[in-house]
Amino acid sequence: MVTVALKGLAGRKVRALLTAIAIVLGVAMISGTYILTDTINNGFNTIVVNSYKNADVVISGEAAFKNTNGNGVETPTFPQDVLSEVKALPDVAAAAGSVTSDNVKLIGKDGKVVDTGGAPSLGFSVDPREQQFNPTKLTAGSWPSGGDQVAIDKATASREGFAVGDTIELQTVGPQRSFHISGIAELTGVGSIGGATFALFDLPTAQRVFAKPGQLDVIRIQSKTGVSTAKLVSEIKPLLPPTAAVRDANAQVKEDKKEFDIAFLQYILLAFAGISLFVGAFVIANTLAITIAQRMREFATLRTLGASRRQVLWSVVIEAFVIGLLGSVIGLFLGLGLAKLLNKLFVTFGIDLPQGQTVFATRTVIVSLLVGTVVTLVASIRPARRATRVPPIAAVREGSVLPVSRFAKYGPVTALGILAAAIVFVALGTLASGIATAPRLLLLGVGVLLLFFGVSMNAARVVRPLAAVLGAPARSIGGAPGILARDNATRNPARTASTASALMIGLALVTFVAIFSAGTFKSFEGAVDQLFIADYAITATNTFTPIDAAAGKALVGKPGVSDVTPIRAGSSRFLGSDHNLTAVEPNIATGVRLDWKAGNTSVPRRLGNNSFFTDNDFAKSHHLHVGSVVNLEFPSGKHADVRLLGIYEKPNGGSPFGEATISTALFDKYIPRPRDEMVLINTPDGVSAANTSTLKDDVAGFADAKVQTRDEFKANFIKPIKKVINLLYALLALSVIVSLVGIINTLVLTIFERTRELGMLRAVGMTRRQVRMMIRYESIVTALMGAALGMVVGVFLAALVTQALSGQGVVFAVPWLQLVYFIVAAILVGILAAVIPARRAARLNVLKALQYE
């Protein structure tokens, strides 16, 4: 049977190829994801490892905590005197200290901050006398020396047109400064640093520019020959203050790698690969089901010649295995190209990450081949079982059809049961209270999968009424071809439903993303309208990252500025967790309108050095009331007790305040280089072109500061989020492409099945053009069925999720125009899917078609 299966497969190359394409795309996504993320990880790893080259032991600043999911934490520094004490140790061969910063903005010749696409803007000191510790190398010029020199990265110099000897503006702490470019450098061992930039200074200049006088961030130490790292570490520990820690170089590399964990990106991309494979499984199952129905006489002949039902089953499974394995191999190597396309896609959407040498890991090969082959085999089980029901008599009987399974009578009940179970699971996962997060996510994930299966299994019941509605335009416009197309779509409801279901999955997810994002945007805009009463806001150029507090301070007392009220952004540990911490001036009420549930507008004026306020949700969840005392721990490890002075109603869409808000005086006491989330500005006569121009002139010394009105703030805040949403659409497009392949498969295979019928239509006068129209209309109707089912499922999921998140301010909003775009996209998918099948049908030889069996 193996020989029979392989020969049969070789005789149906086109059908085998059509079946394999679906699995090729899904596996390519898996392979491409692993290759891309492994390559990016390799780039990060190379950067981190090279940053400690030739160092045996490393001293680094140590924060009391890390708020990785919030505003982040600036690592504390330690005194430069530690370096002298370390050098004095008898087992130390060499040691070099440095300071670093992730907030060194390079300013292009156009006066704008060089866009990093969300990547860091790095700065660090180098010591030409200790080159063994330097992770960079010069490509032109010399190392910086003196207070007005800097070396910049090669990528920025090339992109912005800078050369050695040019003057460049930089902004770090305080207003921007001018520097002479002494050299161009690059990181060793890395092909690309992505969108990141870096600037190099000598140590005294870096300490001054980063506002870290007499302080260090890192000391790299080389031990004398024969001295163990453990011994050296034990000698250094007693010399360190509480804000510093000592580790061997390998341990420090592992610690730093935590800052560059891109596992989330890998999981997201693998999720989209899973969606594509899930859609591909529908396509494979449907394609195999059609081919098996068309091979009735072949299977019946095998049974007549003595083949058992098990042998027939294995012949189909072997075919599926070969198709799955070959498709997986092609997809595996196609992933190399897809990885590059994914990287270009990320760059297009403003995500440019460092990369090292391309990594094609053994894990990538094994997982890609295994998943692709297994998915194909699983998808083939039901069609293979159907093949075993072909009776031997079908070999000589004209027009035989597959006998109905003995379990067919339970089909409607099973389909409805799966759909009902899916709805229950999804409802529990989104709406149930008292269930832990992990079980809820599991319920939701299983529920969504069952929902897709349930809708697909029940879709055959709505094919005819949907075809009547969706095929009406084709009937009216296309005449006889339109009528035939509609009837063809309903000829085999189960087949049409299965074909449409593949597109349904992609459209459901796209619809969900569209509705959920629309609700999120609407709630955010509502919150801004409710809170934002200032005339202007000063933010970073990208709206998201904090800006140096000096920008807001520079506006105080300027002509035409009546109120300046900054909102500091930082982190603190309190009540057992890491939280966002914000700080305000006493006059915050001139910029933000708060609905006080406990306290009143005088709360910000009375904060002083021992009070804070919070929102009602946080107070309720932590059983806080006015007068409650909370101990704040700052990144330096210092503590401060603060008393709850007021509680405000958190609006739908969130607020600019963290879980605790203190005074700027207290914040600045414990945070050495404070930054502002935004600075709110009022002018005597409100928003005007003249006031806008004046404010821009006032902050001209801070290139990273952007002057925005309330409407501009809303638009600029949403803009990068929309980029992420569009990226999701682009990734979901792969599943739509797979479903397009499914429609092509179905149409091509049904043309084989209807060869004689098409010949008869041509014989009675149907033109080639009318044949193409008929196939095209049939494809469009099928695609619109998938769109209709997908949108219903997407709206249902979005309604449940938004209801579950209503407490966080997410509202239900339907973007009608986007849904219209999705319908148009579905029509285009139908048209594209019909191109090859329509041409094939129109080119059939009439006489040969009439003789076809």
Using the alpha-carbon principal axes, give the shape.
globular
Q: Which stretches are poorly predicted, pLDDT < 50 over at least 5 residues?
A: 394-398
**Measured on Cα atoms, how large is the radius of gyration?**
33 Å
The largest pleated sheet is described as: 8 strands, mixed
Query: How much strand content do the residues show?
Result: 15-25%
Tell me the helix content: 40-55%
* Derived structural class: alpha+beta
How many extended strands?
25
Distance between the termini: 25 Å
**What is the number of helices?**
26
Instruction: Please tell me the overall pLDDT.
Output: 85
Which structural traits does this protein have?
alpha+beta; seven-stranded mixed beta sheet; globular; 26 helices; eight-stranded mixed beta sheet; 853 residues
Structural commentary:
- By secondary structure, the chain is of the alpha+beta class.
- The protein contains 26 helices and 25 strands.
- Strands 4, 5, 6, 7, 8, 9, 10 and 11 form an 8-stranded mixed β-sheet that branches. Strands 15, 16, 17, 18, 23, 24 and 25 form a 7-stranded mixed β-sheet that branches. Strands 3-13-1-14 form a 4-stranded antiparallel β-sheet.
- A hairpin with a 5-residue loop joins strand 21 (about 630-635) and strand 22 (about 640-650).
- Helix 2 (about 15-50) runs antiparallel to helix 22, helix 8 (about 265-295) runs parallel beside helix 22 (about 710-755) and helix 22 packs parallel to helix 25 (about 815-840).
- The longest helix is centred in the last third of the chain and has 44 residues, at about 710-755.
- It starts with a helix and ends with a helix.
